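Lab notes, practical 5.
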Amino acid sequence: MINYFYKSLFWILILCLVIGCNKNEIKSKTAYFRGEIINPSSDNVLLYSDNKIIDTLKLSPDKRFLKKFDPIDYGLFKMEHLPENQMIIIESGDSILARANMSDFNGSLFFSGKGAAKNNFLMETYLKLQNEISFLSSKYSLTGENFNKIIDSLYLEKYAIWKNLIDKNNFSNFTKKITEASFKYPYANRKARYALIRGKSKNIKTDSSYFIYRQKLNFNEEKLSFFEPYISYLMSYLSLEALEDDQIFYKAKNNTDFNIKRIEVIKKRISNIKLKNILARAVAYEEIMNSNNQNSHEKFLDSYSSINPNQEYYNEIISLNNSLMQMRAGRPLPIVMLENNKGKVITSNKAFMGKKTVLYFWSQTQMNHFKRNEERAKVYKEKFPDYRFVGISIQPYNQLVRNYQELMNINVGNQLALVNYQTTTSEWVINLLNKGIILDKNCIILEGFGNFGYEKSFENLLKKHYNIN
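Output from the prediction step:
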């Protein structure tokens, strides 16, 4: 009887342990991502996985958001609050709180809670790398050997910080891979960029010792396929491999034939299908966005299609090419929805009809850029008074912006905002904030790809079209 009792008790305990383990396993598959956005530019935070939006997180009245992942193992995600974004690692069991002030997104973004350390490392590493840009750019005149020494020293500094971090934390192999890649590939990219810029005069391409760093790199790392530092390095690698010995990179890179060569390098050197598609898409974007190559785009697209691209990416590139065609001089400006300072929605053709108009763009999170554009608009207006200059915010209006424009005595009659960022940036091909568009009085495009911030060039465009009705 006693033996039976103990046997029964034993199996009850085993059952309890199994149930307990299952509960823990279920709990471990859950993760939480919370956040607070101070001075938001919109009412949501977008969450991406593999470059696709997986959720739109609405901000509460107190500017907070919450996402529950159930189930989840691990993943590299992108949080985006336009126009800023940041990559984040989220794994099972994490409970991460992000806090950012949009007046200084990069400087203020901070993570707390379980899973914070790895993400703070990513952010801090990014900021350190950004701070090194001007210093390293001034070192391109050095020999390859001396430039290498500087890069290696900076790399070892970051590596020591990373090693100390992983020694103190029980990080997964996935987190170790991503956090190490966050500084390893940017420095590899620096070396590749040096070779691209200085290669011809320094004979870098024939110096095998310079490229010894490649031995530590993986050219087919699928888990890094949507990690920007990794893709940036691979893009530089493709350019190096495509560049002929007698070519200068900054001249060659604008040629369709050079981009076709990069597609050929992808075919030969990249075996991972996912990476092959991502890199080919990136090369295609660079080619199609170069409006000077429009007459050669069909030739490039033939080469691009030969790589058997992902159908979604292929359709995206074709759509981009079609949008570029619609922004050519002589075409009517594609009609989109805009809103004025009071929140009233108006179509773009009604907003710009009747007078030659110049459109320039700005972001509510880059107010210094807005000020510079307003100053440029005043200078242009004094020289070319017959144009109407209209500033367009890429985010919908909010009360803070209204108050600011009122305080600065901005003519709000010449200020509008996008209602739908994704649609408008696609149809107008807004790929940079300095884009400038010149229209005639009937909303016909005179110049669809001007650079409003490049004053000498844009002034020549204004002069060219000034006497056209």
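Observations recorded by the TA: The CA atoms of residues 324 and 429 lie 7 Å apart. The longest helix spans residues 173-202.
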